[in-house]
Design brief:
about 190 residues; 2 strands; mainly alpha; 5 helices; two-stranded antiparallel ribbon; about 75% helix
């Protein structure tokens, strides 16, 4: 399947704006859905007995399974802090994405704010990937803090999601910088002519 680029320039612009509008609303729906989901997840970690569908699921730690209800309140509180930071970074990335789609919908392709938003989205994604990678060993250590000294676990792992967020974030930052430079060169050329 190939893309149809035979549309007239005005039609292409309308198509881009309609697509950006649809994506902006999808990002908005995701942001709205993230709020109750975040509250539910935080409650499930702190009070696993009150949210049995999520809270009593076993967590695998070094070939051992534990439920959240087996952890102390201090451990669950520490895990909740990690969860809140992770969800906050994800929310920031979604807000930046929504803002980027809104600017594209308004045909502000090379405006400074649009390019700043693109770079900001990349920074949010990179921050999320780094935090997600760093939180795995911290969370496994927190979850095994009640074990005897020699049985505590620090698990270090990276998965495809973290790598994808890191690559996509870096790409967004670089595209934002390159497009900003292109926009400033175009403005200089306009002033010379």
């Amino acid at each position: 399947m190939t893309a149809d680029f035979s549309l007239r320039p005005g039609k292409r612009l309308q198509h881009i704006q309609r697509s950006a509008k649809a994506m902006k609303w999808m990002a908005s729906v995701c942001l709205v859905a993230l709020v109750p989901l975040s509250v539910l997840l935080v409650l499930a970690v702190i009070f696993p007995a009150f949210v049995p569908l999520i809270g009593d699921n076993p967590v695998s730690i070094d070939n051992q399974e534990r439920t959240l209800s087996e952890l102390s309140l201090a451990q669950r509180g520490s895990l909740t802090v990690l969860l809140i930071v992770s969800l906050s970074l994800l929310t920031g990335a979604l807000r930046a994405l929504r803002c980027l789609f809104e600017r594209i919908q308004n045909a502000e392709f090379f405006a400074g704010r649009t390019l700043d938003t693109m770079a900001s989205l990349g920074i949010w994604l990179i921050s999320y990937a780094i935090f997600d990678f760093a939180s795995v060993p911290v969370s496994t250590l927190i979850a095994t803090m009640d074990y005897p000294e020699g049985q505590r676990v620090v698990d270090v792992s990276a998965d495809g999601g973290e790598i994808f967020c890191m690559i996509l974030g870096t790409l967004m930052v670089l595209l934002g910088w390159v497009m900003r430079e292109a926009a400033s060169l175009a403005e200089e050329n306009r002033q010379i002519i």
